[in-house]
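Protein in question kept in full:
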Amino acid sequence: MPATTLHKLITVVGLMSILHAAYSAAQHRSYLRITEQEFITLPIDILIQGIASLFMVMYGVMYIAGDFKEIRAVVDLENKSWETLRNLPSFQVFTHRGRYLFPPTKLYT
């Protein structure tokens, strides 16, 4: 399922909500220090906001990231022939220093 604008919007809103929950937690912590109260736990509204926004971000990122690949490597290799398994194009080098060491000779002069 492709990522839509809705999924991207959900992810952005979730990230902003996580940042707001973190700022609220820091502000609550500084309030407790000023009033010299002991920190026991965060208020329930900050906890709920943090958990809900975490799930929003996870949902949005799951659709933005694209299709998942199979864990088993055999699934990808079943569709390939034996000749293409040993073809490693990242190791094929055509411009190397050998052309400067042995310049091409003119066969037809």
Observations:
- The longest helix spans residues 5-34.
